[in-house]
Amino acid sequence: MSGPESRADEDEPGGGLPRNEAAVPRSDRQAERSGGRRGRCWALILAGGAGERLGRNRPKAFVSLDSRPLLWWSVETFACHPEITDVLAVVPAGFEVAFRDEILTPLRHCPDGPVRARVHAAIVGGARRQDSSRIGLHAIHRETTPAELEETIVLIHDAARPIVPPALISASAYALRQRGPCAGMPRAEGPIAVLPVTPVEDTLKAVAWPKGEPLLRPSDVQLKVDAGTLSTRCGQVSRTVPRKGLWRAQTPQGFFLQPILEAHRNAASASSHATDDVTLYEMHGWPVEAIPGSRLNLKVARPEDLVLLEAWVQSPAGRASVRSVT
pLDDT for 246-259, tens place per residue? Predict the structure, then answer.
């Protein structure tokens, strides 16, 4: 693996992670869950989004889904997973206490012990998703010993995907530990990343919006169509985009700690912007291996997404699925 030089995190605030009083000592936690490997397996959950399209007065990760914040669902799922040794959430400024009170405190017990023992106190993210991811990676790097560094992996997940199947976590960690290549694929040079994907099934159109791309508002569910509304919300279809070979990217996206931290440092130095972490690997020409994602791993972006997920988790099938997670 081509990894970054081991250097101090001089470009990020210093100091260790905030203390979670429920956490067990690192050596005990690693022995408990790492199966004898030197490296740990971190879940880095990004929860810094404002969620403006949801039309709520709270950040998206703290909007309620079946009486629990969105972030609570993925934190508990990762913390109860046998592959995960540590969970770190990155939240908006001012929501560290809300994380403790609304997410950390209500966490239940996993079959093998208290879930809170694996969850660190939340840290504050940056202005963009990419900034929050880099800040989280630096925090993890500061918690990693030299003996652990080469084998430590990080699964970076969006809190906006609250119902992440445990099998997807297992598949992501396993594929990463195997270090590729996928069966039938040529071996590529450089460190690998793992990306869950689902097929694109809708017909895709390129559309020009003369007055800017319209955003769906919460009130649009009951939108009354009239001439005035249509005149401000019409676009022009320019072409059909072939969907063959196109797949939707999901999270968690899996990486070894050293190279993804190097990729983020390089992107920050070059002022490069990416909407997900594997894009930084693509910029370096490093291999990204795709694995099957899950349709249940829905991303909450708009009000109707929350409605769909609420109906799912309250249904008999959804409740059975959630019980299998927690």
Answer: 999 999 999 999 99
